[in-house]
Amino acid sequence: MDLLGRLGLSGKRVLLLHHDDLGLTHAQNGAYQALGFPTGSVMVPGAWAWGVRGRDLGVHLTLTSEWPAPRMRPLTEGESLRDETGAFPPSPEALWKQARAEEVERELRAQIQAAFALFAPTHLDTHQGAILRPDLAEVYLGLAQGYGLPVYLPERLEGLGVPEAFLPDLVRLMERAPFPRVRFLDPYGLPPEERLGFYLDLSRLGPGLYYLVHHSALPTPEGRALPDWPTREADFFALSHPEVRRVLSEFHPLTWRQVKEAL
Predict the structure, then answer these.
(1) I need a labelling partner for 259 at 20 to 30 A (CA). Which of 39, 58, 86, 160 fits?
(2) Which stretch of 63-67, 146-150, 156-160, 252-256 has the lowest confidence by average pLDDT?
(3) Backbone phi and psi for residue 170, each to the nearest 5 degrees, phi listed first
């Protein structure tokens, strides 16, 4: 799909700047408000999901709960979606070993319905790529089409940690899905001290549609309860930096609401 052509943006540098993990902590929500960038997605099972307000919010569909705290639990009764404590499994790999597709579909549908009670969703995405098992990806894409909500599809799956055995079926699903393909950017794996340089280097990118994910959180005691808090604070401080703001202003900003309308 030539989304940029539909939007009259062919040949331009276009950026979807996406705030991940909203609803997980109050520090995450506070950073979203402080930064002022409209696009993000909400973890509906998160304790702070009710506190997110914005004009371009999606549903960060959640099937894993990786931290010792806060743990997140399913909204539905699916036994295959729980570990021995009753919370979501701690990793996609653990989920893939036990999840039944019909229980995943019920859970994701429940999260989407709950999101509609909190805000007006503009898109769907997924926490930790937990839907990348091919049968779960088919459920995910079916729900997106059923609810009329776009999802992002990366131009390439290589380098995203997808098991090699999943690749052929996922590629076939992506090729027939009616959603835009984007160039995925995520600095999460970089050390915090390299985060500012990553954002400044965006100025070197050529034309195309880029989907940049960040995990910004405020430097509060609650925010620092997460083991990865230095990376989240580094995102927040980098995206607050005036030189990074200047670099971002060189891109044409895009929201999922605009994508949804174009589709």
Answers:
(1) 160
(2) 156-160
(3) -65, -40
> pTM, whole model, 2 decimals?
0.96
Please count the CA atoms within 13 angstroms of the CA of 125 that sit on its side-chain side.
24
**What per-residue confidence (pLDDT) applies to 89?**
97
Give me the catalytic one of 19, 127, 214, 215: 215
What backbone torsions phi and psi does residue 213 show, to the nearest 5 degrees? Answer: -100, 135
Decide if 123 is catalytic.
Answer: no
**How far apart (Å, rounded) are the C-alpha atoms in residues 123 and 151?**
6
Distance of alpha carbon 14 from alpha carbon 155, whole angstroms: 15
Percent of the chain with pLDDT over 90: 92
Token couple for 129: 């790529």
Which of 18, 19, 20, 123 is flagged as catalytic? 20
- 20 included as an active-site residue: yes
pLDDT value, residue 68: 87
